[in-house]
Write a structure and sequence with these properties.
The chain is of the alpha+beta class. The protein has helices spanning 3-23, 37-45, 60-64, 128-133, 139-146, and strands at residues 74-86, 104-109, 122-126, 150-159, 183-193. The protein has one domain: Nucleic acid-binding proteins (OB fold (Dihydrolipoamide Acetyltransferase, E2P)), CATH 2.40.50.140. The protein is built from five helices and five strands. Strands 3-2-1-4-5 form a five-stranded antiparallel sheet.
Length: 195
């Protein structure tokens, strides 16, 4: 091989590797270290199959009061959308930094009067996987479509133990409380605006 061929190979290899890494889906455990709490919980966050049935006793009101359910259960809950924003960098999404590869966090409240009270928020999350599979729009577009509206959200239940310090029901006197409960719908497989 001549010097020109080596130079071309040196340029193409990093481009190929960068493309392969970006295009490859994040694995079910994400980038969590084996035996970590995140390694155990990330497969639940990264489910892609929509639930076939939902538990009708799971309501937004029950979740907001701190009721606990199994991570194998699904729900269809109705609430008012107080907030829509991109999630932070998380191991379940291989620590992605761009909005398209991060979760979309949606805060629901039982009453529009509580829209500015973070301690009343029940969090539901669209993941990059479910965004692709169920054709959800970007976080910015979704915010324009559903913020300050009543919606029905369907998906899998998840107790996100990573946020026990941030939930009013598990840390009532905490200084960084921004949610009512660690119980969430994550991932979301359906959202319907109600009129």
């Amino acid at each position: 091989m001549n010097a020109r061929g080596v130079k071309i190979g040196i340029v193409i290899l990093p481009l190929f590797l960068a493309t392969a890494m970006f295009a490859a889906p994040c694995e079910i455990h994400g980038s969590a270290a084996p035996r970590s709490r995140e390694y155990v919980i990330n497969p639940f966050k990264n489910r892609s199959q929509a639930p076939v049935t939902v538990n009708p006793s799971i309501t937004l009101e029950a979740l907001a009061k701190g009721a606990r359910f199994e991570n194998t259960e699904a729900a269809a809950i109705i609430g008012y959308v107080a907030l829509v924003k991109p999630g932070r960098k998380e191991t379940c999404n291989c620590s992605a930094k761009d909005a398209a590869h991060k979760d979309t966090h949606i805060a629901l409240v039982t009453d529009p009067a509580n829209a500015n009270d973070e301690s009343k928020y029940v969090i539901v999350e669209i993941t990059p996987r479910t965004r692709r599979l169920y054709h959800f729009p970007s976080t910015a577009t979704l915010k324009k479509q559903i913020r300050h509206k009543r919606v029905m959200v369907t998906g899998w239940l998840l107790y996100d133990l990573m946020h026990e310090g941030n939930a009013a029901n598990t840390n009532p006197n905490g200084k960084k409380v921004w949610r009512a409960t660690c119980e969430e719908i994550h991932p979301v497989s359906g959202i319907k605006v109600l009129h």
